[in-house]
Amino acid sequence: MPNSEVSMGRSDDRDIRRRQIAAALLRVAGAKGLHAATMRAVAAEAGVSLHLVQHYFETKEQLMLFALRHLAERMATRIKEDLGALGAAPAPRQVIETVLTRALPTDEESRVFHLVYTSYAMLAVTDAALRHQPFLAAPDAMERFVAEQVRLAQESGDMPRGVDPALTAAALVAMSAGLGTSVLLGQRSAEDALTVIRQTLGGPAPDAATGA
What we know:
The chain is mostly helical. The protein is 72% helix and 0% strand. The protein folds into two domains: 1-58, Arc Repressor Mutant, subunit A, CATH 1.10.10; 60-212, Tetracycline Repressor, domain 2. The protein has ten helices and no strands. The longest helix has 30 residues, at 3-32.
């Protein structure tokens, strides 16, 4: 086998192992909180030695950032799938609702994402190194995307023209994040949070029987 193929195989194996370890961190964090996801706890959850975890990730910060990027990529994929299910030319307001709804903790994967992201953001408040990681730029990208959809909705007459798209997007994304936290805390159900989003956008509330 050529050396390039051997190197590629080793690279693939390394990536698979790193993703397995990252998945173990997310399981620990989802069950006990990010503070409980020590290198030793992650190793135990993954069924590997602490030495092996440290072989792939020298520090917990490296492991945490890799896991967060992996989780963010997965959530981005789910958003793309949701948008694809809307059809060829969905209404901009429908696109906005879909994106904001996906940010809610409506299932285990999105619950873990919201929990881990919020925990990480709280750590970043007092840690400048964490605060400057690219992962925390995700809300900015979402705001820009939503702002463009607001602008398109204004052009189609589906949203009022007298509001600033960027400010409206900032308010909507912040609202969605706050609603997600309130769902995690048990303040309201995911269905109630969805009702808030839909009514804020001027759409109908979910059907009481189906939640859709």
